[in-house]
Design goal:
The chain has 956 residues and is mainly α. Helices cover 64% and strands 0% of the residues. It has 48 helices and two strands. The protein has a two-stranded antiparallel ribbon. α11 runs parallel beside α12 and α24 runs antiparallel to α25. The longest helix is centred in the first third of the chain and has 27 residues, at 217-243. The model is unreliable at 1-39, 49-66, 863-886 and 920-956 (pLDDT under 50).
Length: 956
């Protein structure tokens, strides 16, 4: 593809056209994966050559003075970049990892170009490497050869070509056998293909391309186009071979390694065909596998052999041959596919521990790990594949009952070596650490601890080593002194910066299998961990550990921490924190009360109420004797918590399932609380109120039959007296405004709970007059009115019922009720207004629903049609009516979204307006005397309303 100076241009164009046609015809083979960075490299090289041709003068290659010679460290860094830039392409990696590897190679090529252009001594170093015939330098030589091809460094082509054999016979594999160094020969073919677009077997084939050629920009563009056509030709070839897969065996020795790989894969599929000559195909695959250097082709050949051999017995001849080839293979380029093959080939698990035994496979992978780790530039991908394959064989060994024998395997040493080697990639160390659990012994714990103490272990490696420590700890005796030291290191990991590693360490301490060991270790670190932990989930784990293993001395540290308030204010930790305090307090009254005071805090919001609930639960855990011996101020504080919870709407009966809190307040704490310790809002009136609430609860239980040791009348009398004393205390000159109303409301509820409906209604009526009832109590008042006054007739109680319902719908909390409940309340309000017979009530109801949105048109009716005459009064001026969302403060706001609900509201308004058109007196008397005439304002369809029927309101 490179132009000779003495060839005419027309002949060059004709030759190039013939080359393109030959490539397009499919004589070369399809690609499995395109090499990254080729397009960019071609464009960059093209720009450089154009600049050189148009420049008047070329810059000298060397400056006047050479830079100082690089030291050993700089040379090592340069060789590392060179190795990454010239790594061979591999097959079988995950797509993400393959992309990362290709991107890393591209970055290394860019760095290598910069070094070669900026420092001539590095170019001299590369020439020295290419001229070196020492076989020990093969890895670096091959990397430089491939990097030269990828960078399009044509000047080094003659030096690279010396790795090819001079001549060879035309038979398959003869060129490989003739090469003195097959590894360098394959790298040279890869590089020369990148430079010239052809696969050369020998130097003889290359010589015409090296003689008197100039890499012009046009030739480079043609090279790029040739690579594209080569890919097209490969795809066409593969399409043909898939139609006749048995003929693919003739292509497994093609000069193109991508063609060899694709053909081998097709042959592997063809082995399952009944017409295939399996013996011949397998023999050809084995023959080629023994010669193959390229990683991609080797992986495909191995895959074609392994799949059919997996169904064979471990002692089958072909299986034994393949195992022997894999075990003896030490070629670094093939390490990844060899490791995978060792995991897939059949192994025996019974009988003598010979070459075909599974433990021999484990040992072989251990030897491969050693060879890979000893390489000058270890390949992390090959190491990972070997570790994954080793884990696969270890799983099979454990399933076969060979787990104990794994701990004596030759793979132990390289696994520990990789885990400890800080120069290895972190992912390799982590994988090695995850594999240790199959090989670790109880006396290996100092090695694991040493890695953890060094500080170079990543959090991921710490995770894997914690799993190893668990295997070690499980094997310890309960009284082993080493267990305490190992657990101490685990405790240190519970305080590291990485939250996931802290979580893993805490989980290990909470492991059920390790409880006898953890119980013997000092756990003071847990209290320090709790006051510093800022992750809620981890705080809960520390609290659980402290509850299980903590000692009383740790409670004081926790209570003195500012972190305690944050934990007590977190709904996710407050219950566990209370349980921990109960355990750590150990029934001591002073410690229990201190913890309860810290738990309760001073907040009055929802979290504050939760904290007070838990504080009461904590003090109730005390024995009766310990509770009685608390100081008076503590009794007073406990009673204050109970009273504040009641004032916040918390039913004290729900604080515990057995009623212990109320019993303790009644029998212990209230009796011993003293007025002179009153602080804030819990004064004498509040104390009397609390006692009345407690007695009311007792009387309710007696009345319901839950408690049978007292007479209901006696219990009710005690509660009545307590409420009377509380009302007197709340009505004094120093009483808080409105507190007496709260006491009276609690008395009304108590009377209602024991069936004293008349007295309860009397209390409720007084509270209604003073506007001291909210939605639930107003509903109950309406129900009691229907219950008490039902025998007096619906018209008698209708005016009062209307006033009660009018107050109900005026409450701000009523707007938060469900729409169905609010609609029912408006129905009931309309009925009460109509039953009362008072036009003032009807007009008041209409005022509440003023300016309703227009009535929705009937289904199928014309929306532009004029409204019916009987609806015009109810609708008013439709043009001036607001939309459903125009007045959020209106009573009907939120009730007009559904057309049926809006129609219902319009029907109520229409009924109310119709009732205001009162007929003449004589007409009214006639209507009243008519036997079947409905009441004035009543709908032909009687509403089903609980108040009118004497039952409770359905909206209650």
């Amino acid at each position: 593809m490179f132009l000779r100076r003495d060839i005419p241009a027309n002949r060059v164009a004709a030759a190039l056209g013939s080359c393109a046609l030959a490539l397009a015809a499919g004589c070369a083979a399809p690609t499995v994966e395109e090499e990254p960075g080729v397009d960019l490299a071609v464009r960059e090289r093209f720009d450089e050559l154009v600049a050189e041709e148009t420049a008047e003068e070329l810059e000298p290659v060397l400056g006047p003075e050479l830079p100082p010679a690089p030291d050993a460290e700089e040379i090592a860094r340069f060789e590392r970049v060179l190795w990454r830039a010239g790594r061979p392409w591999v097959a079988g990696l995950p797509a993400v990892r393959a992309s990362e590897r290709q991107a890393g190679t591209t970055r290394a090529l860019d760095a290598l170009r910069e070094r070669l252009e900026g420092a001539p001594h590095w170019r001299a170093r590369c020439e020295q490497i290419l001229a070196d015939a020492d076989a020990s330098n093969d890895e670096l030589w091959c990397a430089l050869a491939r990097a030269s091809g990828r960078m399009l460094s044509f000047e080094w082509a003659p030096a690279i070509a010396h790795a090819l054999p001079q001549t060879a016979a035309s038979g398959d594999g003869e060129a490989e056998r003739a090469a003195t160094n097959p590894r360098r020969a394959q790298a040279a073919r890869d590089a020369l293909h990148d430079l010239f677009g052809r696969w050369f077997r020998t130097r003889t084939e290359l010589e015409p391309f090296l003689a008197d050629v100039v890499p012009t920009p046009g030739a480079l563009l043609l090279l790029h186009e040739g690579r594209r056509l080569e890919g097209v030709a490969r795809e066409r070839l593969f399409a043909l071979l898939r139609h006749e897969p048995l003929t693919a065996i003739d292509w497994i020795a093609d000069p193109d390694p991508v063609v060899r790989a694709g053909a081998a894969a097709i042959v592997g599929d063809a082995l399952a065909r009944p017409e295939a000559d399996r013996a011949r195909l397998v023999a050809r695959l084995f023959e080629r596998l023994d010669l193959e250097i390229d990683a991609r082709a080797h992986a495909a050949l191995l895959g074609a052999l392994v799949v059919p051999l997996q169904s064979e017995t471990p002692d089958a001849p072909d299986v034994q041959r393949l195992r022997r080839m894999l075990i003896d293979d030490r070629e670094p380029q093939r390490a990844l596919s060899v490791a995978r093959g060792l995991a897939l080939v059949p192994w025996g698990v019974d009988g003598p521990r010979g070459e075909g035994h599974l433990l021999s496979g484990v040992a072989a992978l251990g030897g491969q790990l050693t060879a890979l780790a000893d390489a000058a530039h270890p390949d992390a991908d090959a190491l990972l594949e070997a570790l994954f394959s080793l884990e696969t064989l270890c799983d099979r060994a454990r399933s076969a009952g060979l787990g104990p024998e794994l701990r004596d395997s030759r793979a132990r040493e390289p696994i520990f070596r990789l885990m400890r080697d800080s120069s290895q990639a972190d992912v390799v160390r982590v994988s090695a650490g995850e594999s240790l659990d199959s090989f670790v012994r109880s006396h290996d714990w100092p090695v694991v601890i040493e890695v953890l103490r060094r500080g170079d272990a990543s959090p991921a490696l710490g995770h894997s080593l914690l799993a190893v420590l668990r295997e070690i700890l499980v094997a310890f005796e309960p009284d082993s002194p080493s267990a305490v030291e190992v657990l101490g290191e685990v405790a240190k990991l519970a305080a590291v910066d990485d939250p996931d590693l802290r979580r893993r360490a805490l989980d290990l301490l909470a492991d059920a299998a390790l409880q006898p060991l953890v119980a013997r270790m000092p756990v003071a670190f847990l209290s320090e961990r709790l006051v510093r932990e800022d992750v809620p989930d981890l705080s809960r784990r520390v609290i659980q550990l402290m509850r299980r293993f903590g000692d009383p001395s740790m409670l004081e540290v926790c209570l003195a921490s500012e972190r305690f308030d944050a934990l007590a204010s977190d709904p996710a930790t407050i219950v566990g924190l209370t349980d921990m305090c109960i355990v750590l307090a150990s029934g001591r009254r002073s410690a229990t009360m201190n913890a309860a005071v810290r738990l309760a805090g001073r907040r009055a919001d929802e979290i504050g109420l939760t904290r007070m609930r838990q504080a009461l639960r904590l003090v109730v855990a005390l024995d009766v004797d310990e509770a009685e011996s608390l100081p008076a101020i503590a009794h007073h504080e406990i009673c204050a918590w109970g009273w504040r919870l009641h004032m916040a709407g918390v039913d004290l009966a729900t604080l515990d399932t057995e009623g212990t809190v109320l019993a303790r307040i009644r029998d212990v704490h209230w009796q011993r609380s003293a007025l002179d310790h009153a602080r804030g809002d819990f004064d004498q009136a509040a104390r009397m109120h609390l006692l009345a609430v407690v007695f009311a609860h007792d009387a309710t239980l007696v009345h319901s039959g839950a408690v049978g040791d007292r007479q209901p009348s006696a219990a009710a009398g005690d509660a009545e007296q307590a409420f009377q004393r509380a009302l007197l205390a709340a009505s004094g000159p120093d009483a808080r405004p409105g507190f007496a109303l709260r006491v009276q409301r609690d008395r009304a509820r108590f009377r209602d709970s024991i069936g004293e409906s008349v007295h309860a209604l009397a209390d409720y009526r007084e509270l209604v007059e003073r506007d001291a009832l909210d939605v639930p109590d107003l509903r109950r008042t309406i129900e009691l009115l229907a219950l008490v006054g039902g025998s007096s007739g619906r018209r008698v109680i209708a005016p009062e019922a209307f006033r009660l319902r009018q107050r109900l719908v005026a409450r701000p909390a009523w707007r938060k009720e469900p729409a169905s409940v609010r609609l029912q309340d408006l129905r009931d309000l309309c009925e009460s207004a109509l039953r009362s017979g008072d036009a003032t009530n009807t007009e008041a109801f209409l005022a509440l629903l003023a300016d309703l949105p227009p009535r929705p048109p009937a289904q199928g009716a014309d929306a532009t049609a004029a409204p019916a005459p009987e609806l015009e009064v109810a609708q008013g001026d439709a043009d001036s009516a607001p939309s459903a969302a125009s007045d959020p403060d209106a009573l009907w706001s939120g009730l007009t979204a559904a057309p049926s609900d809006l129609t219902l509201l319009h029907d109520l308004v229409a009924r109310a307006r119709a009732s205001l058109r009162t007929p003449a007196p004589e007409t009214a008397s006639k209507q009243a005397s008519a036997p079947h005439a409905p009441e004035r304002g009543a709908s032909p369809r009687e509403p089903s309303h609980a108040l009118d029927s004497g039952a409770g309101s359905p909206g209650s």
